[in-house]
């Protein structure tokens, strides 16, 4: 999908008050599950691989999988690199034909983040690709953190004025922010700072991205949608549904055949993705480009 078509997708989400779900995959079953949910609910989606997931699947293979799926139902999925922390990750994804990339320099000091992001923006725009930046670090990791709560995670929140400068200096098309969101599922619930979100939205006027979508309750998601969040990332809940299903199936020692137990895992993940699509309000939002 090209840059202008992606812009159209974000504009539509922004004017109609919903968010496009960004779902991670690292196996063909996960990709299938995400796509099946999107097609069933007639929703656009971003199908993402982190740089580690991209390395595991292979960037060309990831491109091939999403091409194959989009061939059956055109224009459903945007293939997106999630958390590319190095210039080489951005280059690998773009050279393999990814539609969109996330340059994540958020762990770096401001100036270095700007330097890396600018370089990535130049490469992305030269190749006609959409690029997301990140300012204010979203901490945690996409797994279950059963023994710790959200307040245990160090927060580096996004500052609205700095976000304005960052967008001007780098030229990113969308921005991932920290407003209390955390990667992974922890005890309790996260506390999203909506006042900050409103200020960042006013300062940047570009599509804003909420990472760490797993575990954020419905009420806070709905509010985030009305305050300018246009994309929400989900990984942990997908990973949990997938691994729990397979673990359960393989308890049966006679279970040897992937085509017997994998469809159950696909169903479990599809259910998670459908729930999120409904939460994000993108059901029936798939339009011809
Ligand atoms: O980049 C991926 C997402 O931010 C996933 O966050 O694992 O909390 O769903 P999550
Ligand atoms: Zn993330």
List the keywords.
alpha/beta; binds glyceraldehyde-3-phosphate; two-stranded parallel ribbon; 289 residues; 8-stranded parallel barrel; TIM Barrel; binds zinc ion
By secondary-structure content and strand pairing, the structural class works out as alpha/beta
How many separate helices? 11
How many strands? 10
**Percent of residues in helices:** 40-55%
Task: Calculate Rg over CA atoms.
Answer: 18 Å
Q: Stretches where pLDDT falls below 50 for ≥5 residues?
A: none
CATH superfamily: Aldolase class I
Summed up, the domain count is: 1
Task: Record the strand order, biggest sheet.
Answer: 1-2-3-4-5-7-9-10
Ions, cofactors and other ligands present here are: glyceraldehyde-3-phosphate, zinc ion
Q: Which CATH class applies here?
A: Alpha Beta
Query: Quick one: overall form?
Result: globular
Could you please say which CATH topology applies here?
TIM Barrel
Average pLDDT score = 97
Distance between the termini: 9 Å
Write up this protein.
There is one protein chain. By secondary structure, the chain is an alpha/beta fold. The chain has a single domain, classed as TIM Barrel (Alpha-Beta Barrel), CATH 3.20.20.70. It is 49% helix and 20% strand. The chain has 11 helices and 10 strands. It has helices at residues 3-16, 28-40, 51-57, 59-72, 87-95, 110-126, 160-170, 194-204, 218-226, 236-249, 258-280, and strands at residues 20-24, 45-50, 77-84, 100-103, 130-135, 140-149, 174-177, 183-187, 208-210, 229-234. The strands form 2 sheets. It has an 8-stranded parallel beta barrel, surrounded by 10 helices. Strands 6-8 form a two-stranded parallel sheet. Helix 5 packs parallel to helix 6, helix 7 (160-170) runs parallel beside helix 8 and helix 10 (236-249) packs antiparallel against helix 11. The protein starts with a helix and ends in a 9-residue tail after the last helix. 51% of the residues are buried. Bound molecules: glyceraldehyde-3-phosphate (G3H) and zinc ion (ZN). Residues 83, 138, 183, 211, 233 line the site of zinc ion.
